[in-house]
Design brief:
Blueprint: H1 6-21, H2 28-35, H3 39-51, E1 55-58, E2 64-67, H4 76-84, H5 91-94, H6 108-123, H7 127-130
Antiparallel strand pairs: 1-2
Helix pairs in contact: 1-2, 1-3, 1-4, 2-3
InterPro entries: SUF_FeS_clus_asmbl_reg (IPR014290), TR_Rrf2-type_CS (IPR030489), Tscrpt_reg_Rrf2 (IPR000944), WH-like_DNA-bd_sf (IPR036388), WH_DNA-bd_sf (IPR036390)
GO molecular function, one term: DNA-binding transcription factor activity
GO cellular component, one term: cytosol
Amino acid sequence: MIRLSKMTDYASVVLTRLAVAAPTLQSAVCIADATRIPKPTVTKLLKLLTKAGLTHSVQGPRGGYQLARSARQIDLADIIGAIEGPSGVTECVTDHDLCDLTDHCHVMDHWHRVSVQINQLLRSVTLAELATPKLQRIPTLQVNDDY
């Protein structure tokens, strides 16, 4: 199973908080309180997300963080890339020089194809969708029309 780090999971929560609060600036303390993620972790994530161009910081007593672009323009691949770095199912997909078998490998092309499919799926889910609560399904009543 492909598993993302806890930091990537937390990054999606932090960004979702910023999306819901947009365009209001949010301090690291406010985000930490709202998400219940420890403040040092939120601070570290915000630095990484700002470096990746997903958030923007405003300095000063009324400063804070906000999304650098619309939540519809940020997708899961962006979030994962900001925390995990370049993504690929295997290392050879992201850097052919990491593997000594590249010249003789018969499976690399298949792993590349899988990586492309996963990346397309990650690109199809936006932060706006993450920030939209899942609607609770209301059970429908079965009506008996035989009466």
